[in-house]
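Worked problem 6 (solution included).
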Amino acid sequence: MKLIRAIIRPESTQRVIEALEKNSIYAMTRMNVTGRGKEMGITQGAVRYTEMPKEMLMIVLPDDVVTKAVRVIETAARTGTKDYPAAGNPGDGKIFVTDVDESHTIRTGEK
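Solution. The predicted structure is:
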């Protein structure tokens, strides 16, 4: 099993969730987070924003579904222009995939 942590723009979240659901991926945890990437935030006029609001989706999946899920997230979360919709922009997000050694269901105690 793998844990996918996708940190994406808040305005992309619903689009990503709907794309995952279309691919039969339903279970996830969603939370609001803040952070910054290598762009170190943004400047609007005289104001510098060093941490940007993001959303993190946490999804645990069997190994054989992970590549598909990552592609779905990348495609749905990527921003672009009308002429180049797949171009992407800084701040679109990051996806981390890590191993899950085990999981336990609290209700049943099932491992």
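Discussion: The radius of gyration is 16 Å.
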